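Table S2 (text version). Query chain:
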Amino acid sequence: MKFALEVLPTRELVVSNGTETIHLPPTFAYSVSIFGEPCIRLLQGTESEMITWPVGSWYTPPGDYRWLITRRDGELEIRILWIPSPFSHQPNEQGAPVFIAHCPLRRFAVQVKNQVQQLSSAQPNDGYASSVHHKLTEALRATR
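Corresponding structure-token output:
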């Protein structure tokens, strides 16, 4: 399945699985670097073979988008859930899936790295994005 992650000039985050595309509000674009640390740990093998982690939850009135990423044998399942109550502690099972994609870990990590690089270039004072980009680049080199 084709997977794409892109921050548009409008700062929308676009995620596609080749069949479906979802446009997420600008608050996501600035948060792409949040995916960096989990990608680095997975690339370095410091996470278990099967892991599900909530990568982030973003408040978008009138609710939250919650990202869940599950790794199985080097493949990722990326699920975005819609939780209708903002800042809720509802379990993931109560969220409505709005997007699901599967892709290799390396492909996801490269896409995150490229988008973080764009954000870092657009915001040169963002030391966190620059640091994540550097660490992701090194982790990807080490796993060739």
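Notes on Table S2: The beta strands are 4-7, 13-16, 21-24, 51-60, 63-72, 75-83, 96-104. The chain has one domain: 4-142.
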